[in-house]
Amino acid sequence: MGKRAIDYLLGDIRAQAHVLKWARLIFSAVGVAAIAVGQVWIASGWGTTVFWCGVAMVVLTGVVLFFFEKDSASLILDLNASEVLVGEQADHIRYLERREEILLSWQSITKLLSELLDQALTATDLGAEAKKVFFTAVVEILADYKFSLFRIADEYCNISIYELSAETGCLECIACFRSRPSDALGEHRSWKVGEGHVGKAFELQRELICGDASAPDIKPWISASPANFDGRDDERYVSLAAVPIGVNADEPVGVLIVTSNVAMRFANSDENHGDENVKEERRLAVAALQDFAAQVGQLVAVFRLREATHAEGTSSDE
Fold first, then answer.
1. Strand, coil or helix: what is 72?
2. Which end of the chain is more exposed for a tag (fewer CB within 10 A), N or C?
3. Membrane spanning segments where (predicted)?
């Protein structure tokens, strides 16, 4: 490999430092010798000149040392400052890499959800079975990127889509992913508007982000009602993000949730502690989830429109 520009520069600096070192040594020795000779022959005119020349050389050497030589304490302080700067730069580089990872995952999921929406718009059959397939695909896409987006690895994770049922008036699960596949089978709990984190997010018409749902001031507010409570909730749903879905933000049709049993996978503005890089990573992840919820809302709208059209066609035939 060829030399870099910095290698040539360092080579020149080393050569100059070597020359400067010998120059300081010679000037100091000559200056001290001149002072000694001048003192011996101080009575003569040339002795005085030699003496002051020696003093000048010693002073000049001292000035050079002041500007170019550092004591051990200064070197240690400068080294510490350099290490701090290198650490900050390394942290910033890690943040930029993490930011790139989030943005690339965000872009990939957006593209996949857009493709699903295109398929829904052109599909001829959008019955109940097709609806289940489409929304299951949505949660599986999010599950594939849960680590790169939210740093959810091997912990218990729940990714679900709830839709408001016109018949029951409750938010019912239409698709879900669980880290333990058997938990995704069978019936799931329905939530009344305002009940639990799902119902609260729908009622507030805004995202509900919680870093630690077990906190005493938060737990009573988002806990399920006694009739809907599961004894495993406290250990499974610790950190969560619930985002309303819908084409119109003021008229949500459901809720998209992502939860983890590890605290601080998500965090609201009050809980988002740590260094600025980590806080920004969490903000980006939540922003991405909001974008996904908007796309899921479009998909729900397509199915609802097709269902309404089908219902009108059926009534006309009758």
1. helix
2. N
3. 21-43, 49-68
